[in-house]
Structures are given as structure tokens and as C-alpha cells.
Design a protein that fits this description.
Length: 340
């Protein structure tokens, strides 16, 4: 009987609507653990379900399949899925946040996905356009409350939640996709504001966290996702977080601090990340999975298994369910009525 691979430590992407032969080989590498989708991978619900099934059939073992489906600007699957508002809209109707979390998660789970990288836990400070209304609020306790409701809805649908971007990306103007942001604030100011949503949701059992590609020089010289201080001392020990830690995309400019892609992955994993993301650069992703040692890590693998989706309805059952029909119409109308 062939040996099945456990979930590996690298998340990567694929180029299009179907798998190529080369991508099937990469997916079957022992160090591959997950695939993330982008808008280019999506045509309609039937196509994405077929692609999900093909990936699972290709992998000789466990694999996770994820997407960014926050709503607003960051929603990869659109036609055939409910158009969700940005997180910041829920300050106007907070009672919709939990329903929106359930709706988003139920739609993804119904086509075989495991999870979306949501909710955003950054507190908007009005200076970072890359965050902006992706944040639930400018006031930290309100952000925590709305994100908590959204997470509750996700969990009710059968999806684990991922809070991002620890310890907070909202107070820097530079977008870490294109540069290395520096946040000069002292630790106590960050603790009193930015850590509040993370602290609250960790206490409620948050399943995963993604650190920011931000340097906080008054605290530590390394970006949070490469910092044992932020990951081990603060996140694991002080906040008591037991769940999964995903690096942010190591192809972003904010990760360039750590060297080439293989070195970035090595340093992120050594700092305490459970899985390293390498997106939109298949050559780099292939080098990363070849460069990392192939070794079992049962504790890490067990954490990652908690991110597997637990769907309650297939696609047909969902779209014929009264709750989906009511909420899909309600959330879409809410988004449309508040759109700029």
C-alpha cells in the first residue's frame, strides 16, 4: 500500500482553471500542504468544484485548499457567489456580521473548499489603503466584536477562521505587497489597541493566525512573520494561542527582508510559522519545496488538520436552503445599498 503524505509546510498556487501535468507533480511533493486560489482560477461554481476535486485526487495524502474571500475588494470568487460587502460596512448593521460569515463559509464549503483567510483583525487607523475597509472598525473593541460575530458565523457553517495580520497592519501607510512597512510605535501602544481583537478571538478559540510583513523596530528588528519574539513570546506564550500560524505570502516585497524565497520560508518556519505561503511565483515555489527538509512534524500536522472544512450542505442543498436564499438576497442588497 502506497504511503500517504501528511500535510506539508508549503502553500502554493496554480496557474489557471485546470491543473497542468507539472502542477500535479508539485502538488504531490511531500512538502506541499495546501493550494490557494485566486480570481484567475475561478470561472463558475461547477468549474471550481471540479478543480478542487482534481487537486484532492492528485494528492497522495492530505491537502488544504484555501482562498481569500473576505468580501469587498478581496473576494476571489464572484459570479455565482454572493457579493459580500467590505468588513467595514458591518458597523452600519452589526447584526449582519454573523450572517455574512455563515454565508461566505457555507458557499465555499459547498464547492469543496476548506477555508478562507478571514477575518481581518487589523484595526483601521485611516492611513493604510491596503487595509482600509477590509478592517471591521477604527475602534479596537468594535473591530473585535464584529470580527467575533463573523467568525461565529464561519464556525457555524463548518469553517475554521484565520485572523490577520498579527499584531496589526493598520497603522502603517506602506503596503507590504510592494514594500517593507515600519511601524515605530512602542509595544504598549500596540498592545492596548492592535492586539485587542487578536486577544479577544484567541480567547474564543480562533483556529489560525497570519502575521504581518511589518517591522516594529521599537519591539523587534524582524518582520512579525519572521520574529520568534512576536510568534513565540507574544502569540504563543503571552496570548496563549494554540492554533495554526500561516506566514503571509513570501513573494511579497515585505518578505524581501529575509533573503531569497527559500531562505524566507526557512526563516518563517524557524520563527514558528506552521505553513509558508509562496504565491504567484511557481519557480520560487518549486525551489522552496525542494529546499526544505522532508521531515515529519506530528504536532504541526495535527494543528493543520484543524483547518479542514466540515461542510454541512452541498451546492445543490445550499442554494435550495431557505436560510441561504434569505441571507444571500439580504447581504447583496446591503452591500449594494452602501456601495460607493
Amino acid at each position: 500500500m502506497a504511503t500517504e503524505y501528511p500535510i506539508g509546510p508549503v502553500m502554493l498556487d496554480v496557474a489557471g482553471l485546470e491543473l497542468t501535468a507539472e502542477e500535479k507533480e508539485v502538488i504531490n511533493h511531500p512538502n506541499t500542504g495546501a493550494v490557494i486560489f485566486f480570481a484567475r482560477n475561478y470561472y463558475d461554481p461547477d468549474q471550481i468544484e471540479h478543480l478542487v476535486n482534481d487537486i484532492r485526487a492528485t494528492r497522495k495524502g492530505q491537502i488544504l485548499i484555501a482562498v481569500d474571500q473576505e468580501g469587498g475588494r478581496v473576494q476571489r470568487f464572484r459570479d455565482g457567489f454572493t457579493r459580500l460587502p467590505p468588513a467595514g460596512f458591518y458597523t452600519r448593521q452589526p447584526e449582519l456580521a454573523e450572517d455574512a460569515g455563515w454565508l461566505m463559509a457555507s458557499e465555499l464549503l459547498s464547492v469543496g473548499m476548506d477555508f478562507s483567510f478571514a477575518p481581518v483583525l487589523d484595526v483601521d487607523c485611516g492611513i493604510n489603503p491596503a487595509i482600509g475597509n477590509r478592517s471591521f472598525a477604527m475602534e479596537c473593541r468594535q473591530a473585535a466584536s464584529l470580527a467575533s460575530a463573523f467568525k461565529k458565523g464561519m464556525n457555524a457553517a463548518g469553517m475554521a477562521a484565520t485572523g490577520k495580520h498579527f499584531p496589526g497592519h493598520g497603522a502603517v501607510a506602506v503596503d507590504s505587497h510592494v514594500g517593507i512597512p515600519y511601524d515605530d510605535r512602542e509595544f504598549e501602544e500596540i498592545r492596548a489597541k492592535d492586539l485587542v481583537p487578536f486577544h479577544a478571538l484567541i480567547a474564543e478559540g480562533l483556529e489560525a493566525i497570519m502575521p504581518a510583513h511589518v517591522i516594529y523596530p521599537a519591539v523587534d528588528p524582524n518582520p512579525a512573520g519572521f520574529s520568534s519574539f512576536w510568534i513565540q513570546d507574544i502569540l504563543r506564550k503571552e496570548l496563549g494561542f494554540k492554533g495554526v500560524i500561516f506566514s503571509d505570502d513570501l513573494n511579497m516585497e515585505g518578505a524581501g527582508f529575509a533573503g531569497d524565497h527559500s531562505e524566507r520560508a526557512k526563516r518563517a518556519l524557524e520563527a514558528g510559522c506552521d505553513m509558508a505561503l509562496v504565491c504567484n511565483n511557481p519557480t520560487a515555489a518549486a525551489k522552496v519545496i525542494e529546499s526544505l527538509p522532508i521531515q515529519a512534524n506530528p504536532e504541526r500536522e495535527q494543528r493543520l488538520l484543524t483547518m479542514q472544512g466540515r461542510p454541512k450542505l452541498n451546492r445543490f442543498e445550499l442554494i435550495n436552503h431557505p436560510k441561504w436564499q434569505q441571507l444571500s438576497t439580504l447581504i447583496k442588497e446591503f452591500a449594494d445599498s452602501h456601495a460607493q
